[in-house]
């Protein structure tokens, strides 16, 4: 597995190729460890206003999805 470390100021970005995909199932698996109680863990958005955001707020996971 790949491991990435951040110091609180970093970001990683990945752009998918612009083609239609026929996917029946999406799987996202994350493991993280932090000393912070607030922060964005994952954010992705599409071209039509759809998005997914996983963040920590006051030490609790918050998942927001708009499709």
TrEMBL record:
Pfam families associated with the record: Laminin_G_2
Q: Which residues form the Laminin G domain?
A: 3-67
Q: What is this protein called?
A: Contactin-associated protein-like 2
Q: Which gene encodes it?
A: cntnap2
Q: Which Gene3D superfamilies match?
A: 2.60.120.200
Q: Which InterPro entries match?
A: ConA-like_dom_sf, Laminin_G
Q: Which organism is it from?
A: Clarias magur (Asian catfish)
């Amino acid at each position: 597995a790949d491991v990435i470390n951040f110091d609180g100021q970093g970001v990683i970005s990945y752009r998918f190729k612009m083609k239609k995909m026929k996917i029946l199932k999406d799987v996202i698996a994350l493991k993280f460890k932090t000393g912070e109680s607030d922060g964005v863990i994952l954010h992705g958005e599409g071209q039509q206003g759809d998005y997914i955001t996983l963040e920590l707020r006051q030490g609790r996971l918050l998942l927001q999805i708009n499709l």
